[in-house]
Write a structure and sequence with these properties.
about 325 residues, alpha+beta, eight-stranded mixed sheet, globular, binds 2,5-anhydro-1,6-di-O-phosphono-D-glucitol, binds manganese (II) ion
């Protein structure tokens, strides 16, 4: 596919979504397309603030903690405000759940639409001050009936859209509407996300593992044994280690190169560290749509039925065969 702006044959996220909408014929109302436009706007706005963070004095701690206990950075708070306000004004949301807000937000009547959006406005906050890649993660559910928190207490498999935007050397929006995964790169010149990674497929096996091994002291036996198996393999071809510490960046690399990303539940963080609704589900959804797999050790992440909006999960995701290897160690245990 030709994606060069100079040719005039560019495919933007908006034109691509409109094309998908047209293929659905009269069933499609265009509401989801408009919601995706609002999400794009949030990503562009956050991307601009990330790029200029040092110049705009947006670096550093805000001196506050969110209600779920994480220290907040200035950019965490700003990104959350951008998301909440832009999504509310789109008129397409009924419920929002953000990592930065303790309670689910029920959108007031005059702005109410029919979608629920769960999001991590800024992922990888510990990397902000060093200029390392960070991102935004989101998932969308359709709301049936009266909007309430119940709209998002559903397995990730029921999401209608999942995606992330990574702010790095370029801004990359990676998204799935349940028909595979596409990646778009922001062309700052025209302010549009251009289709640059059509139909992303994750390799069935990779050569890279991505864990915070600083937690190894607390890892359970299956995790320890699995890591041993890829570091000291019988074929003398150990995996390479890559760990950025921004889930968005670690998952992005895993989608493109293959391999495995893991943040397991362990003796210290008994339920894991990462959040199920707005970190686990969207990433698991994308990985599965790209042909990979995501598990918590016991089962598929996307089948977990959540009971709380901020609940945590252990997670292993990536190339199907690599994640199946982890599952074998858990089965044996
Ligand atoms: P957030 O910045 O949204 O709180 O998320 C941070 C997460 C995730 O991005 C990353 O995978 C993980 O925390 C890194 O944790 P460690 O620093 O414990 O390795
Ligand atoms: Mn996060
Ligand atoms: Mn965050």
């Amino acid at each position: 596919m030709d994606t060069q702006p100079a040719t005039g044959k560019i495919v933007t996220l908006t034109s691509h979504t409109l094309q998908e909408q047209a293929e659905l014929g009269s069933q499609a109302t265009g509401d989801l397309t408009l919601l995706l436009t609002a999400i794009q706007t949030t990503c562009k706005t956050i991307a601009m603030n990330v790029r200029r963070a040092r110049l705009l004095d947006l670096i550093g701690a805000a001196g506050t903690a969110n209600k779920t206990g994480d220290d907040q950075k200035k950019l965490d708070i700003l990104s959350n405000e951008i998301m909440v306000n832009t999504l509310r004004q789109s008129g397409k949301t009924a419920v929002m759940v953000s990592e930065e807000d303790e309670e689910a937000i029920i959108v007031e009547d005059m702005y109410r639409g029919k979608y629920a959006v769960v999001f991590d406005p800024l992922d990888g906050s510990s990397n902000i001050d060093a200029g390392v890649n960070i991102g935004t993660i989101f998932g969308v559910y359709k709301v049936e009936g009266q909007p309430s928190v119940e709209a998002v207490l559903k397995p990730g498999r029921e999401m209608v859209v999942a995606g992330y935007c990574m702010y790095g050397s370029s801004s990359n929006l990676v998204i799935s509407t349940g028909k595979g995964v596409n990646g778009y790169t922001l062309d700052n010149g025209i302010g549009e996300f251009i289709l640059t990674h059509p139909d992303i497929r994750i390799p069935s096996r990779g050569k890279i593992y991505s864990f915070n091994e600083g937690n190894a002291l607390f890892f359970d036996e299956p995790t320890k044994k699995y890591l041993e198996s890829i570091k000291y393999p019988s074929n003398n071809k150990p995996y390479s280690a890559r760990y950025i510490g921004s889930m968005v960046a670690d998952v992005h690399r895993t989608l493109l190169y293959g391999g495995i990303f893991g943040y397991p539940a362990d003796k210290k963080s008994k339920s894991g560290k990462l959040r199920l609704l707005y970190e686990g589900y969207p990433m698991a959804y994308l990985v599965e749509q790209a042909g990979g797999l995501a598990i918590d050790g016991k089962g598929n992440i996307l089948d977990i039925v959540p009971t709380q909006i901020h609940q945590r999960t252990g997670i292993f995701l990536g190339s199907k065969e690599d994640v199946e290897d982890v599952a074998k160690f858990y089965k044996e245990a």
